[in-house]
Amino acid sequence: MTTVTATANQSKLAPTVTRQLLHDSGYVLLGFPLALASFVVLLAGTALGIGLMVTVIGLPVLAGTLYAARGLADIERLRLPSVLHQPRIRPHYRAAEPGASAWRRIFVPIADAQSWLDLSHGIFKLIVAVGTFVVTVVWWAGAVGGALYWAYDWALPRGSEAENTDLNELLGLGDSTASRVGLYTAVGVFFLITLPIVVRGCALLQASFCRAMLTGVAEMRDRIIVLEEQKRAAASAEATALRRLERDIHDGPQQRLVRLAMDLSRARQQLASDPEAAGRTLDEAVAQTRDTLAELRALSRGIAPPILVDRGLPSALAALAGRGLIPIELRVDPELGTQGGRLDPALENTAYFVVAEALTNVAKHSRATECQVSVERADRRLTVSVGDDGQGGAHAAKGHGLAGIADRVRAAGGELTVLSPSGGPTEIRAELPL
Fold first, then answer.
1. How much of the chain is in helix, strand and coil states, percent to nearest 5?
2. pLDDT tens-digit profile of 317-358?
3. pTM of the full structure
4. What's the distance, Cα to Cα, between the start and end of the chain in Å?
5. Which of 96, 160, 171, 249 is least surrounded, with the fewest CB atoms within 10 Å of its CB?
C-alpha cells in the first residue's frame, strides 16, 4: 500500500514540476523582448515629452507615454498569476470627471502616482530581465546540450591536439572519447537537475519586481479597504448584539423582576391579614425567580456559554443542538475540542454565534422538520454549515435575521454564503480563516 501511494504521488508531482518549469521559462524568455520594447518606447517617449515640455506638445506626449506604460503594465499583470499563483490585481487609476476638458484629461495620468510607477517599471525592468534571461538561457543550453552530448559528439569537428584541449584533459581525466562524453554528460545532468530551481528563482525574481511596482500599492489599498470593512462589520455586529441583548433584557428578565417586586410587596401586605394568600403570593414569586434565572441563563448562552470556554466548540454545539425544537444532525471535527486542536477564543465565539443564530432563525422562520450542522477545518479555513429542509427564502440583507451573522463573519475576516431558494432547502455557510 505504501509503495503504491508513493508511486502515485511521484507521478502526480512530475507533471506539476514540468508544467511549472515551462510556465517559468516562458515567462522569463518572453519577458526580455517585452522589457526591451518597453524600455525603448517609454524611454524615448519620456525623453521627448520632457524635452518638449517648454512647448505645448510636451504634455500630450508625456501623457501618451504614461498611457502606453499603463498598457504595457496591464500585459505584465496578465502574466504574473502563472508564476505567483495569485489572482490578478489591477490598481484603480485616477479618472477624469465626466465632461472634463481635453487638457484636464491630459493632466489626469500625469497626476496619477500609479502611472509613474508603471513608467518606472517599464524602464527599469530591463535590468532584471537581462540578468534572468541570460541565466535561464545558459541553464537551458547547459541542460539540453550537456545531457545530449553523447548523441552528437561524433559530429563535432576535431583539430589537432596542439590546437584544441578539451576540458577533460585540463582536469586530468584523459583524452579519450569516453572521458570527454562522460564529463560533458555529467555537467549536463547537473544543469538538468538544477534547471527547475534556477528557472523558478529567475521567474520569481522578475515577478516580484513587477509585483512590487505594479500591484504593491493596489494590494495595500485593497487591504486597507478590507480592514475598514471588517472594522465597520465588527462595530455593526456588536451594536446589533447589544441592542438585541438590551431588548431581550427589557422584555424578559426586567419585566419579571418588576412583577417579582410587586409580588413581594403584596405578600408583605398580606402577611398580617391573610397568611395563606401571602404564602400563595410567595410561591408565585419563587416561580418568577426561577423563570428569571432561566431567561438570564439563556441570554448568557448567546454571549459566551461557560461550556464553550471550558470544553470547547464540539461540546458547546452538542449542548446547543440538544435544546433544539427539531431534530438536528451534528457533525463537528472532534479535534476542535482537544487541548492542542482548539481554535482561537474569538474564532470559537464567532463559530458558536453563527450556529446559534442560524438555529434560532430555523426555529422561528423556516418551518423545517430537520436540520444539519457541520463544522470542519481544512486548508487553513474553518467551514461552518447549517442546512434545513424548510420553506427557504432566507437572505442576509440588512433588516433581516441573518444580517447579524454576516456582520460577525465579515468582522472575523470570513465570508458568509446563503443558499435559500424559494421552497427550500436552505444552507448557510460561513468560511472563516484560521
1. 70, 10, 20
2. 888 888 777 888 888 888 887 877 787 777 888 888 888 888
3. 0.55
4. 33
5. 160
CA distances from 46 to 40, 67, 117 (A): 10, 12, 13
Cα–Cα distance measured from residue 149 to residue 114, given in angstroms and rounded to the nearest whole number: 49
Residues 131/172, Cβ–Cβ less than 8 Å: no
* 132 vs 10: CA distance, rounded Å: 29
**Cα separation of 46 and 120, whole Å?**
11
pLDDT at 126: 93
Residue holding cell 481544512?
Answer: 378
Looking up cell 419585566 gives 255
CA dist., res. 320 & res. 318, Å (int): 5
The single-letter DSSP state of residue 338 is S
Q: Residue 13: its pLDDT value, please?
A: 39
Ranges of residues in the chain whose predicted pLDDT is under 50:
1-15
Dihedral of alpha carbons 170, 173, 176, 181, sign? negative
Q: What pLDDT score was predicted for residue 3?
A: 31
Q: What is the identity of the amino acid at 74?
A: D
- Identify whether the C-beta of residue 65 lies closer than 8 Å to the C-beta of residue 119: yes
Q: Count H helices, E strands: the chain?
A: 15, 5
SS3 state at 415 = strand
| DSSP structural state of residue 343 | P
- Model pLDDT, residue 11: 39
What pLDDT, on a 0 to 100 scale, did the predictor assign at position 6?
Answer: 35
